[in-house]
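[User] Once you have settled down, look closely at the record that follows, and write a paragraph about the fold.
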Amino acid sequence: MKIKEACLRTNLTKKTIRFYEAEGLFTSDKTYLNGKEYHDYTEENIQQLLRIATLRRARFTVDEIRRMTAQPEETVEIFRGYRQRLLEEKRNLDEIVKVAMEIDEETLCGSDDLISQMETVASAMPLPVVDIHPHFRYLDALEETFTVRRKRPNLTQTEKKQRDIAAINAAMYAGFSVQNNPGNNAATGGRGGGFDISNAQKIAAYNMLKTFDDD
């Protein structure tokens, strides 16, 4: 079945289904026609999506779901960690809610005032996981390639020119094909989804590729 029917069967959006598949939580059948990729979703995929959605609504992380899917024997261990995380998040949230409820919105004078009143409780809280371990799909892939593939010496001027052109094209493609394509989706919650890329990240992608063999 096509993604439209999969959406109707699961009550999930196209972006959500694509996000789950991009994160490796399930795999659909793919065919290629005229250079374009088409997905075909099976009944098994529908059941997988329903299970994934249940776990995500229960606040399991994408990584936890991926691990349980790949290694079912680790489910109990993962669940213990998940339960402990929920308890810690609840304690933190209870403290934040308590402070938030004591703030009088009628006398609130802008964000600086809000920050000053939230600062004490917030300073004791950890940053969200996505802030500590952000995931930028294209830059992560480039960095991994850069780390594994080290420099290649003695490039000719023609090879360097071809590399520079490829670097520009890669950075522009990573930015515009993803950021401006409505069919893709921005990351949500714990995993960042890794689909967005800013102008600064385009420049970083370009610089990473351009200097790949210069060091």
